[in-house]
Amino acid sequence: xxxxxxxxxxxxxxxxxxxxxxxxxxxxxxxxxxxxxxxxxxxxxxxxxxxxxxxxxxxxxxxxxxxxxxxxxxxxxxxxxxxxxxxxxxxxxxxxxxxxxxxxxxxxxxxxxxxxxxxxxxxxxxxxxxxxxxxxxxxxxxxxxxxxxxxxxxxxxxxxxxxxxxxxxxxxxxxxxxxxxxxxxxxxxxxxxxxxxxxxxxxxxxxxxxxxxxxxxxxxxxxxxxxxxxxxxxxxxxxxxxxxxxxxxxxxxxxxxxxxxxxxxxxxxxxxxxxxxxxxxxxxxxxxxxxxxxxxxxxxxxxxxxxxxxxxxxxxxxxxxxxxxxxxxxxxxxxxxxxxxxxxxxxxxxxxxxxxxxxxxxxxxxxxxxxxxxxxxx
Amino acid sequence: xxxxxxxxxxxxxxxxxxxxxxxxxxxxxxxxxxxxxxxxxxxxxxxxxxxxxxxxxxxxxxxxxxxxxxxxxxxxxxxxxxxxxxxxxxxxxxxxxxxxxxxxxxxxxxxxxxxxxxxxxxxxxxxxxxxxxxxxxxxxxxxxxxxxxxxxxxxxxxxxxxxxxxxxxxxxxxxxxxxxxxxxxxxxxxxxxxxxxxxxxxxxxxxxxxxxxxxxxxxxxxxxxxxxxxxxxxxxxxxxxxxxxxxxxxxxxxxxxxxx
Lengths: 378, 260
Hints:
Largest sheet of chain A: 5 strands, mixed
Number of helices of chain B: 9
Largest interface: A-B, 32 and 37 residues
Order of helices and strands of chain B: EEEHEEHEHHHEHEHEEHH
CATH class of the domain at 36-49 and 85-249 in chain B: Alpha Beta
CATH architecture of the domain at 36-49 and 85-249 in chain B: 3-Layer(aba) Sandwich
Structural class of chain B: alpha/beta
Strand content of chain B: 15-25%
Helix content of chain A: 55-70%
Order of helices and strands of chain A: EEHEEHEHHHHHHHHHH
Shape of chain A: elongated
Oligomer: heterodimer
Helix content of chain B: 25-40%
Shape of chain B: globular
Number of strands of chain B: 10
């Protein structure tokens, strides 16, 4: 065995129709020099009168699969030109490994056919239609199952449901509180700038109360929940897909709709309105703190003004919205998780698209609510 | 290439492995000679895979030393350890293929990261490795779409990608049918004879152990240490230890009642 690494090289010696290829030096894949030797097997086939190739490996040092790559390429090229290859000069171990290779290189796979535009449009449209149908099935199934769950006939374990309730409720409190208190405080500041110019400071309380209860608390709470819970649902179910856990459930005859989706949808639909109420209250508190401490409003006045501005109607409107948002986030998360692929990347995609779909859905649904409220004059 | 030089490539001295305070195995000492196929044997749960983790650098042992040639692996700095680790090829249980890459990309990644070869050269090396392990179809498939045996083969091709000095195989024939397992065993023999690679193999498949291994260590789950050294067939024929004896002959240990 040679000690100092020697550059892998070849020399060729022509003898009539025969070419003697001398393999020299160390052929080690991890050495940078081997690349040049690997890319030039074709040079010896330049001569037209070539009939046979022989090898001499007496000056060959250490070698690994890079040598095999070279020899396999020579063998394949020789076969296509009906040139005889004499293996006797190759190290015996290399001959044994070469014997493991198929005689003719694996046929190159045909490049995938590119579909025409109309075809792709059709495939896309059918996929969208299927998606619509399966979402409808999911939503309908959840409505029926929620009914069944109320009378205790769904195949859902209490422990899963309680776990989901905890995760979508108490565990989310700090984040919901922080976001809402800051939004309430920001509203108070923004209101103060304009209202003070007209001497209407007192209406800061109305602004904070109304905006928080009708718009900001439902939307901000839902956005927080879609990021922390909707994304988690999608990622969890998608990674269960990857490790065949969903198949294990299916085989046992445990309906995924009952076991996985229902507790999540019910938990989030129940907890989002509760978080909304909490978020509204703490948001008003944030506005109150700013109005009293920095804008020098009297606390009694702020409270009285808020009570007159925020009626039961406003709270019910906000509650309705957050129930819808909660259901939307849970359904989107579970649906995207269930249809995810099986690789690690698919889990990431599922989490991302659950959050994106939820947030877009929340804003769109909020717009629908706004239009309806305007038409009904609520 | 076989056993004319009995150079020790991997030496384990007084090794103890465990998680936290829990000791899994202790006082393990054995030598692995160049070109041998070395078996880490023992019943399920005795710590075979944990020992393997300590050998391939995934778990720092609580005591003892692992020497690769003249280097004390766990005494090296992180950078040198990584460099040393490039001389290992590891086939994990079930293949552990990167699920978001095709079979070919799985084999190509180590070559792309650690060699300066061009795309064409890497591609021919990848095709060569996949041909060597007998994967003729499904080279462009994602791991999820491959069968267990094919995944195992891709895993082996990936382990061979950088032409390792030592090949570690964790339960290579688990989940394969007898014919596929036999083919896989033959493949390991052929690769050992061809590349002269040293193989360390974790297994409790008796057929594989007797078929290909020429040295080994037997780990006991009760005493938490090695209770047998030598080739599996030697242990079968001449071990006095009742556990080793029963294991190697697929019998119930003396005094052990079969569960009803």
